[in-house]
Amino acid sequence: MEKVNINDTIIHLVKIKNKYHFYGISTANSELIETNEEPPLSEDWGDREIYQRINITNFTKVEVPYPIDKIFIEYHQNLKDILQNNRDGQFYNLYREELRVAQKYFAACSPELYNVFDLISRSIGFKPELGIENNINVPTKNEPQSPDYNPAGRVKTIISRLIRDTKLSRLTKAENNWKCQICGKSIQLPNGFYDSEGHHLKPLGGEHQGPDIEGNIIILCPYHHTEFDYGSIAINPETKLIEHIDSHNQYHLKQLAYNRENLGSEFLRYHYGLIFNKS
Ligand SMILES: [Zn+2]
């Protein structure tokens, strides 16, 4: 058995209807513990004298468990290469040119293998909650509820910095590799994953009642998200260029880091017309 350390990331593979699935991710909360307490679902493992166990935390389940057979086909070459470089400690082996799950209950995950699971997670919009998200999604306390440089006569916009990270916004972010559409940057998390924020151009709540649809969501880094909320920056719905209240800003009149075809012009127009504070 491999050694387990506290804070190790654990990839859970679970057998469903006789097929292994990528089931979730968690963090180890203990090293290996020996116990004589039988697990709640012992199945073939009942009646043993000693069980080895670890405690876990932050378990996040993959919404639709992903079949390992599919991973073996889609990432066949990567997994074969990984196996070539490190025969021991993998959860799979090669049998007549076919990859299959080996009977291993703790397997070390090389950085290359971790990468494969990262790619799979991105492709299905799975982002484990490892305690980071909470910090990002908490509204900042001392911020003004409304910027005080609102020109007279504009629709008053009250925006709290509570980030509505809907399921759809998480998916849209994953599809776009968590990159800010203004600066192209993403937040790198300590667990090897990335993050960004989804911003509803026409805000969801309050007087705006914007819809939670892909066309209304722009992917931003926390910095540009704040600028969007305060109306310091916008996308011109006609030219699709970035406009900033400060004409010396480095992004003013620049192209987006990347465009998204499905971004709705009506929502760009809403943000540009009613929230952007251009003079
Ligand atoms: Zn940015």
From TrEMBL:
InterPro entries: HNH_nuc (IPR003615). It comes from the Bacteria. Residues 167-226 form the HNH nuclease domain. This is HNH nuclease domain-containing protein. It comes from Chryseobacterium shandongense.
